[in-house]
């Protein structure tokens, strides 16, 4: 738990955004993006599991509840879903031998939406982290 606390001590909103964008952009890669997204989801689940094991107060709360109750969690899920679905749609069009040239504008718009969601989510998440009291009693 001390390692987690030391990691979040030096993070800021731009750092959170950078981390999330580096996770999200590869999700646009045809085919690979779906596997990368599944790996990112698995890693997030493992991190939530470790936090639940370390904090008895979170023991009875399902991990997905924590994710879905936070606005930044929902923003991240929406952003990752956009990227992974585009990855699938590109693969589908490639298999059907349909040109993806007409999709370039839409892909650019989706990347812009993804950046907007993750930027806002990074600042909201940073605000939430800063609002956590540092002198919480240990249980």
Helix and strand layout, with pairings?
Blueprint: H1 2-9, H2 13-24, H3 32-54, H4 63-69, H5 71-95, H6 104-131
Helix pairs in contact: 2-6, 3-5, 4-5, 5-6
Q: Give the overall shape.
A: elongated
Q: Say how many strands there are.
A: 0
| Poorly predicted residue ranges | none
Overall mean pLDDT stands at 89
Give the amount of beta strand, in percent: under 5%
- Rg estimate, integer Å: 17 Å
How many DSSP helices?
6
Q: How many distinct domains?
A: 1
Helices and strands, in order, run as HHHHHH
First and last CA, distance: 13 Å
Structural class: mainly alpha
Instruction: Provide the helix percentage.
Output: over 70%
Q: Characterize the main sheet.
A: none
Keywords: Membrane, Transmembrane, Transmembrane helix
Protein name: Putative integral membrane protein DUF95
Transmembrane segments: 21-41, 61-83, 104-129
Organism: uncultured marine crenarchaeote HF4000_ANIW93E5
